[in-house]
Amino acid sequence: MTALFSTSELSERDRFDYWHEVVCKTYAPCLGVVDDPRDFHGQTEVSQFGAIQVSDVTSGGIKYERRSNDLRFDPQDDIFVSVMLEGEGKFEQNGRQVRQGQGDILIYDSARPYSYHYDHAMHAALLRIPRPLMQSRLREVDHVGGLVLPATSVYGSLVGNLIREACRLVAVESSADIGQFSVPTLDMVTAAILRGSGGEFDSHARQRELLERIKHYMKGHLADEEMTLERIAFEQNMSVRTLSRLFAEVGETPKGWLQTQRLAGAYDALAQKRVRNVTEAALSFGFRDMSHFSRTFKKHYGCSPISLLH
């Protein structure tokens, strides 16, 4: 199903206010500023691609700013991956100030403040990916905002082609059939982001390697409800204190990270319809108390687990 939002039939007085409302409701609440609201035009086609949302967007020059108070008002928690089809933009997030030219891939995070400025008209296609789906594939998802994969790089070219083809697929395939393409697309996009980042995610290679080894072990035992910090530390030949320190250096705790991964795994399984019911999803990722699982899931994602099966 595709939803079309366009200013083409609106009066000059109403165009920009309508567009700003569409952006805030469809993507994320933010401040939008243009030089002349009466001369502004915008259009976006939004389609569901499995659990991912695909958009084809054109607009006049505009500046978007997602501020801290916007996050408090509506804490969207998605990752956006966009390819610039025409035009260029300037983007800032996570201390990165980057330019997105034609064909370049920009990754940004709606859970953190950002600013995005187009001096002139632009045309872009983008994927809106629920954070749990990225988190289960890309451990450093919190640090991807502001990354650019150049159009001239093999990974930038790959991701750009995947987004373009996703836009073509949603135009010709039924929503019932299209879900089988979304999972491999997401797998390839996240792999390309990881490989194309050039190691930018971490400056402490040895500690990073050790922490990744620990996380790999933990991810391999998500279904084991008996996995404790003591057991993890023993299996990794270290003390619980050292284990906790490694996580603390990246602003995490072992227990918190483990629960987030379990929830993300359950979300992914439910959203991709790989489980038959909520109980199967919970048991598959180390939850034995169904009431606790449902409460924790809803608190974390703002929706009940059963809603993803509908």
Automatic annotation (TrEMBL):
Pfam families: AraC_binding_2 (PF14525), HTH_18 (PF12833). Keywords: DNA-binding, Transcription, Transcription regulation. The keyword Transcription applies. Residues 212-310 form the HTH araC/xylS-type domain. One of its GO terms (molecular function) is sequence-specific DNA binding. This is HTH araC/xylS-type domain-containing protein. It comes from Proteobacteria bacterium 228.
